[in-house]
């Protein structure tokens, strides 16, 4: 273990960025070196992030591993980092996913491999920074900064319509964050500090709260993405290279959910309570409507992208249904609020694992046959039995089968929603049917059946690298599914505090 | 005992993992040994647990193994509750499973997916044990979905067959429709009792009895009714009750040992088990009970009728399973939980036997499943023939008489006739009469290998005897103790008890009952049709009853309806949402529309920047004049 006096979070944020720059500088023409170097640095960052766990005190909601130095003192901006039970799991998810993504690129990306790897390392640092930031400007810096490597990844290594997709992706997310910046600056003028923790304690009138809430809402809703601002995601996914899709689905979408937890609920609790029905409605539309849309997709990546939107509906539902749970007179015990938020958190982690697994699996097929069309496959199980077995595990996790991580979050959110309103739970539970339909129908058409064409007949089963990559996800998905308690233990204190903040009026 | 229960549940899982992950390394023989031993251990220990609980005076065991998740005010645990209901189910599950494991060695001998198959059926045994041994709803739901998963994998075991992979998708999704209700039921329980633990739930249950909920303005429901019906929707999926039954006949696409184990003996009875387990809840709601009874009666009669027109031997048995599940459900609805469990147990043995026997026939016939092409088989297969005979008789007599609603009563009664008819139709067609197979097949006919016949004989012993010996203790001697609760007003079993004076007397009594004569009539009719005048009568009946037969051939149109309305409808809806909602409205109008407007505006504004100096000079002069005018005249 590293000594506790070390700036652990700064290491996690800056080490990958420095490594990324190094790879970009010295990796040209030395792809082998670039790969090993990138892998080594991502593994080291992953290990450092794991080293946070033993030192993490699960009994307090207070920020831990805090680092704070003045950055631009004239404006009260501090370089201020820290993690709590919400950000730590997401941080570890990020460092883990980056390792996987670098492995996934190994022999697949030949063109400008060092730049590709550098982009992912730099992006990892940015995402870690977003989760660790406790100063709004630092948060905003990383929040915007990570768009650039992603923009480059899709724009250079993407598919044929990559230009349309990148512009759409960039404009959408950028537009959202501009509103957030305005809200942040407004709050700075109000309380004289960019500290997120100060902002959380700052009193605000209802009108102020509503405007700030809407500004945040636009930023985070686009990121998650929520219906109806979701259409950039399928396009971005389809055009992105495998690694880009994985990071996009596994981590970037989570930043939207994280933002709701870090900013919207604690800073604007009354506005959140006022506008909760809007978000619940959007979430339910995401779960049901997007489920139907996913059913008719012919492109595997598009299907999984829509399925992501549908699953992220549970995240926003879990976060905002708490006001109805607390207000429901039939819910005598008043419990269920923390169940909902923790369900949303678990759903984020689990979706990170499952969507990564699904996109990597599609990538494995794409590397071989260069098609994402469902109709180009059929009978893959005949030639790739191990791959098929793992895909079935991932599909079942996507379907939310108990014993996989996909079940935990959905189960908790549905159970909690019943405490708010029967109909909300009913619509949310609809995912049991529609999720199974679109996922398993795809599995039927791609994996099962007799060998459909020569391409499938020539397929080679996963190699060692791919087996490790997918196998580690299988293990994690099942581990979280059969024993989510350690994960929940990390969050209890923080979420209890958060629930209290969200349900205490600032007026 | 705790360790023993753990070993019972986990040893099949170990077998499944070893056979599944290291199938290649341990080979075919290794795979069947490791799984057979795993399930064998489970079986022996289950019998021991049964003995300890029934005769050893062991009290109900209820303890947590580990905490799955502790969050908010709730504890979600994985744990075991073992009482007499549980041990009975454990013995049924492990014994049938063990027989199927042994039988599979012979049946699947030539299959390339040998190891995979053993891995799946052991995994199934594990899941089913987790389901019956659960002490809380979370674990019940885990087992519930896990058996569904294995069923999915096994129906689609021969994944090259288009019909098989269609059937498994259908089975999974229809089960999910049931689980949709089931999960909501679980959520309702958590909402009102803040626990998923059986014991705590039953403790807090009386407080709910009078609670009313209003989920639709102006319509009040009693809370126990809502929860009971939601849970029962789950049972309708798993235990294939109308209208969620359509997956079961199609599930016959899987290998026959699976049809025996999963789609006849054990998994499909999970719903029956669940309702019996929750008898304290169901007892609180007369509305739910009559709903259950009517659904069961519809299933019992109408699915039995479909059995008449099937020609595939496995489909005949599948429809008979549906119909028998209907009987069990009627029994549940009549609060005769112990009768339902009794029937569940005997049915598990004889139906497993029937399927395995059918499988034996199918092997002998080189995978020919059309009963019209069989005939005369008895000459070649004496052992199979006898076991087949035994359980056909059991099946016909089995259809028990239970008091209930008038409709259920008549449906059930008529069902007896139907059951007898289709069972013996199959029996006569397969084993008697002229040989209808071709010469090539005939030359290969032989009695099946020992691994196939031994389980048949072993299974026929409980199938024949268990009913006789178990009826008294199980039905009338309070065998289940506190595991099953019946309200005083609902006590159908006590009513039955008054007429009951021992097993032999009951058999004697039944000779004079209408049930018996209806069964005889069914047997007689099928004998006349298929033995005495096989050339004439079936064809004639088909002609006379052409119209009803067409309905039956189409299985009442459930499949067509589902395909058109739900299948087609949701694809249509999806396409509509996608093409119109996403592509045209959101992307076309809002996203690209905004971009277009900005683009178009920019195009107009661009025209101002012509680049000609005299244009700019001219505008400057105009501006100057305007400014001067304003300063001079208007200020």
Strand content of chain A: under 5%
Query: What would the principal axes of the Cα set say about the shape of chain A?
Result: globular
First and last CA, distance of chain B: 103 Å
Number of helices of chain B: 26
Please, what is the average pLDDT of chain B?
77
* Global geometry of chain B: elongated
Quaternary structure annotation: heterodimer
Which whole number gives the mean pLDDT of chain A? Answer: 89
Give helix and strand order of chain B, one letter per element, not per position: HHEEHHHHHEEHHHHHHHHHHHHHHHHHHH
Could you tell me the number of beta strands of chain A?
A: 2
Instruction: Show the largest interface.
Output: A-B, 63 and 54 residues
Pick out the low-confidence regions of chain A: none
User: Can you list the strand order of the major beta sheet of chain A?
Assistant: 1-2
CA gyration radius of chain B, whole angstroms = 31 Å
Largest beta sheet: strand ordering of chain B: 1-2
Tell me the structural class of chain A. mainly alpha
Secondary-structure-based class of chain B equals mainly alpha
Distance between the termini of chain A: 46 Å
Largest sheet of chain B: 2 strands, antiparallel
Can you tell me about this structure?
- The complex is a heterodimer of chains A (507) and B (635).
- Helix content of chain A is 75%, strand content 3%.
- Chain A has 24 helices and two strands.
- A two-stranded antiparallel ribbon of chain A has the order 1-2.
- With 635 residues, chain B is mainly alpha-helical.
- Chain B has 26 helices and four strands.
- In chain B, the strands form two sheets. Chain B has a two-stranded antiparallel ribbon. In chain B, strands 3-4 form a two-stranded antiparallel ribbon.
- In chain B, a hairpin with a 2-residue loop joins strand 1 and strand 2 (74-82).
- Classes of the chains: A mainly alpha (507), B mainly alpha (635).
- Chains A and B meet through helix 13, helix 16, helix 19, helix 20 and helix 21 of A and strand 1, helix 5, helix 6 and helix 25 of B.
């Amino acid at each position: 273990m590293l000594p506790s006096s070390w700036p652990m979070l700064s290491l996690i944020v800056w080490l990958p960025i420095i490594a990324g720059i190094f790879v970009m500088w010295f990796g040209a023409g030395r792809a082998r070196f670039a790969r090993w170097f990138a892998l080594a640095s991502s593994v080291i960052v992953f290990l450092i992030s794991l080293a946070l766990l033993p030192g993490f005190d699960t009994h307090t909601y207070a920020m831990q591993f805090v680092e704070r130095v003045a950055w631009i003192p004239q404006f009260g901006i501090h370089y201020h980092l820290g993690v709590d039970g919400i950000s730590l799991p997401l941080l570890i998810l990020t460092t883990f996913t980056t390792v996987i993504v670098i492995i996934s690129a190994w022999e697949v990306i030949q063109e400008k491999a060092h730049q590709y790897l550098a982009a992912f390392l730099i992006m990892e640092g940015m995402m870690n920074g977003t989760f660790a930031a406790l100063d709004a400007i630092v948060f905003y810096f990383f929040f915007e900064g990570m768009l650039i490597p992603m923009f480059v990844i899709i724009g250079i290594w993407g598919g044929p319509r990559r230009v349309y997709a990148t512009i759409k992706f960039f404009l959408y997310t950028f537009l959202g964050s501009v509103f957030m910046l305005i809200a942040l600056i407004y709050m700075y003028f109000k309380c004289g500090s960019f500290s997120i923790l100060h902002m959380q304690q700052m009193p605000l009138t209802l009108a102020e709260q509503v405007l700030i809430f809407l500004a945040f809402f636009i930023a985070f809703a686009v990121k998650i993405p929520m219906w109806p601002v979701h259409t950039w995601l399928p396009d971005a996914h389809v055009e992105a290279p495998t690694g880009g899709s994985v990071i996009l689905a596994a981590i970037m979408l989570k930043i939207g959910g994280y933002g709701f937890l870090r900013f919207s609920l604690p800073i604007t609790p009354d506005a959140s309570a006022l506008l909760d029905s809007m978000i619940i409605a959007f979430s339910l539309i995401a779960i049901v409507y997007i489920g139907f849309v996913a059913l008719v997709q012919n492109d595997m990546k598009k299907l999984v992208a829509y399925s992501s939107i549908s699953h992220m509906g549970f995240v926003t539902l879990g976060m905002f249904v708490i006001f109805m749970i607390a207000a429901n007179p039939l819910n005598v015990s008043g419990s269920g609020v923390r169940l909902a938020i923790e369900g949303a958190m678990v759903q984020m982690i689990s979706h990170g694992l499952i969507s990564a697994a699904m996109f990597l699996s599609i990538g494995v097929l794409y590397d071989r046959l260069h098609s994402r069309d469902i109709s180009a496959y059929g009978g893959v199980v005949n030639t790739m039995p191990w791959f098929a077995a793992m895909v079935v595990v991932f599909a079942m996790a996507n379907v939310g089968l108990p014993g996989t991580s996909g079940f935990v979050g959905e189960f908790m959110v549905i159970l909690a929603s019943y405490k708010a309103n029967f109909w909300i739970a009913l619509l949310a539970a609809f995912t049991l049917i529609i999720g199974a339909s679109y996922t398993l129908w795809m599995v039927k058409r791609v994996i099962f059946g007799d060998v459909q064409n020569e391409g499938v007949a020539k397929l080679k089963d996963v190699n060692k690298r791919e087996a490790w990559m997918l196998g580690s996800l299988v293990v994690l998905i099942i581990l979280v599914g059969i024993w989510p308690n350690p994960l929940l233990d990390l969050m209890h204190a923080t979420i209890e505090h958060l629930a209290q903040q969200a349900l205490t009026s600032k007026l | 005992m705790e360790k023993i229960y753990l070993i019972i549940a986990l040893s099949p899982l170990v077998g499944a993992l070893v056979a599944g992950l290291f199938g290649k390394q341990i080979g075919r023989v290794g795979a069947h040994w490791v799984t057979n031993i795993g399930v064998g251990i489970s079986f022996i220990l289950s019998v021991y647990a049964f003995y300890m609980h029934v005769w050893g005076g062991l009290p109900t065991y209820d303890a947590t193994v580990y905490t799955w998740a502790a969050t908010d005010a709730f504890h979600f645990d994985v744990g075991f509750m073992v009482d007499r209901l549980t041990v009975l189910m454990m013995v049924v599950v492990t014994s049938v499973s063990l027989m199927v494991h042994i039988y599979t060695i012979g049946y699947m001998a030539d299959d390339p997916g040998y190891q995979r198959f053993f891995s799946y059926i052991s995994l199934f045994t594990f899941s089913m044990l987790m389901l019956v041994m659960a002490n809380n709803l979370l674990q019940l739901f885990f087992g519930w979905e896990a058996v569904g998963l294995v069923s999915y994998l096994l129906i689609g075991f021969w994944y090259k067959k288009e019909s098989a992979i269609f059937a498994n998708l259908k089975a999974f999704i229809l089960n999910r429709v049931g689980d949709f209700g089931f999960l909501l039921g679980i959520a309702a329980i958590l909402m009102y009792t803040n626990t998923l633990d059986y014991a705590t739930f039953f403790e807090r249950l009386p407080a709910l009895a009078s609670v009313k909920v209003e989920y639709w303005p102006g319509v009040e429901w009693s809370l126990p009714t809502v929860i009971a019906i939601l849970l029962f929707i789950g049972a309708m999926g798993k235990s294939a009750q109308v209208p969620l039954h359509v997956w079961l006949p199609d599930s016959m696409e899987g290998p026959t040992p699976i049809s025996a184990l999963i789609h006849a003996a054990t998994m499909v009875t999970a719903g029956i088990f669940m309702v019996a387990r929750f008898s304290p809840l169901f007892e609180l709601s007369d509305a739910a009970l009559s709903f259950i009874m009517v659904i069961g009666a519809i299933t019992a009669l109408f699915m039995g009728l479909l059995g008449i027109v099937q020609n595939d031997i496995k489909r005949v048995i599948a429809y008979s399973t549906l119909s028998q599940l209907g009987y069990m459900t009627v029994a549940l609805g009549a609060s005769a939980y112990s009768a339902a469990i009794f029937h569940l147990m005997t049915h598990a043995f004889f139906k497993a036997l029937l399927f395995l026997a059918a499988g034996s026939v199918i092997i002998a016939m080189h995978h020919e499943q059309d009963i019209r092409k069989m005939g005369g088989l008895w000459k070649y297969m004496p052992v199979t023939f006898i076991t087949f005979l035994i359980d056909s008789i059991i099946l016909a007599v089995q259809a028990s008489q239970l008091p209930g609603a008038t409709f259920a009563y008549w449906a059930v009664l008529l069902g007896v006739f139907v059951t007898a008819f289709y069972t013996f139709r199959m029996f006569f067609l397969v084993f008697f009469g002229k040989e209808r197979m071709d010469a090539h097949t005939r030359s290969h006919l032989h009695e099946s290998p020992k691994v196939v016949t031994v389980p048949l004989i072993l299974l026929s012993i409980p199938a024949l005897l268990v009913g006789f010996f178990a009826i008294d203790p199980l039905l009338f001697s309070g065998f289940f103790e506190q595991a099953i609760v019946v309200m005083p007003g609902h006590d159908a079993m006590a009513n039955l008890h008054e007429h009951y004076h021992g097993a032999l007397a009951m058999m004697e009594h039944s000779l004079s009952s209408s049930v018996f004569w209806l069964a005889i009539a069914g047997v007689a009719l099928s004998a006349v049709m298929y033995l005495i005048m096989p050339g004439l009568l079936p064809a004639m009946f088909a002609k006379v009853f052409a119209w009803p037969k067409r309905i039956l051939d189409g299985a009442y149109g459930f499949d067509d309806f589902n395909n058109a309305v739900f299948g087609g409808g949701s694809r249509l809806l999806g396409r509509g949402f996608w093409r119109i909602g996403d592509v045209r409205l959101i992307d076309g109008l809002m996203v690209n529309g905004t971009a277009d407007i900005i683009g178009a505006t920019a195009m107009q504004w661009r025209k101002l920047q012509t680049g000609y100096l005299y244009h700019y000079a001219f505008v400057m002069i105009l501006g100057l004049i305007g400014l001067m005018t304003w300063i001079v005249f208007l200020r």
